[in-house]
Amino acid sequence: MKIEIVVGNIVKQPDMEAVVNSANANLRLGSGVAGAIHMAAGPKLEEYCKPFAPLALGAGLITPGFQLANPWIIHVRSAHYINNDEPEKYMQMALESMLRLANDHDIRSLAMPAIGTGMFKFPAMLAARIICQSLYRADELAPFLQTVRICLTNADMVQLFESANAEVQTAHACATGLPSSSSTCVPAHPAGCVRA
45: which of 41, 70, 102, 172 fits an S-S bond (Cβ 3.0–4.6 Å)? Predict the structure, then answer.
């Protein structure tokens, strides 16, 4: 699977089959990514989501893209890093929900934000590591998924995600006993990370 780490607007990725929404429990227009996606998709999205609210921590929901260029929106609910217990566990569950929904709907490309780093207050590097680790194992849950584009707000976030991606690649290479010539084997971070 190809991982693209870019500075980009999540609602302006027309070549992706799905975009991922870091949703609030009520699946309503909010701030940040949820607000941008709801605004771009139009009011029919919120109406469609009403019967499915509240969305449980770690759960996901797939909806049509409505006015977006993308056919699908995958909504996932991460935990609030400060207000919820075991936030890392629920972040992992949300990412697994995303991958299962992609697989169930034969989605081969998706664009996602840095889930959890906005209103949910996850430290950026921790979120990057959890996201990268989940994507590294994507073949287990979504074997047909070919491209994931992580859309970030600035170059600093791109650098951070690239660093997390490199950590996971190195950890995997060392675990399999086949490190690349440019890798230095170090203990894996407990949250881990991704493969390009």
Answer: 41
Distance CA 168, CA 129 (A): 8
> Hey, what are 166's tokens?
């490199």
| β-sheet bridge partners, residue 73 | 19, 63
CA distance 115 to 63: 18
- Alpha-carbon Rg for the chain, nearest whole angstrom, is 16
The structure tokens listed for 134 are 């989940």
* CB-CB contact of 161 with 122 (8 Å): no
CATH number of 2-122+143-151: 3.40.220.10
**Residue labelled with tokens 């664009």:** 111
Euclidean distance between CA atoms 159 and 164, whole angstroms: 9
In whole angstroms, give the CA distance from residue 25 to residue 195: 30
Q: Is the CB of residue 74 less than 8 Å from the CB of residue 23?
A: no
Q: Are 145 and 1 in contact (CB under 8 A)?
A: yes
pLDDT in tens, 73-84: 999 999 999 989
If one compares 50 and 190, the residue with the highest pLDDT of the two is 50
- Reply yes or no: is the peptide bond before residue 179 cis, omega within 30 of 0: no
Query: pTM of the entire structure?
Result: 0.89
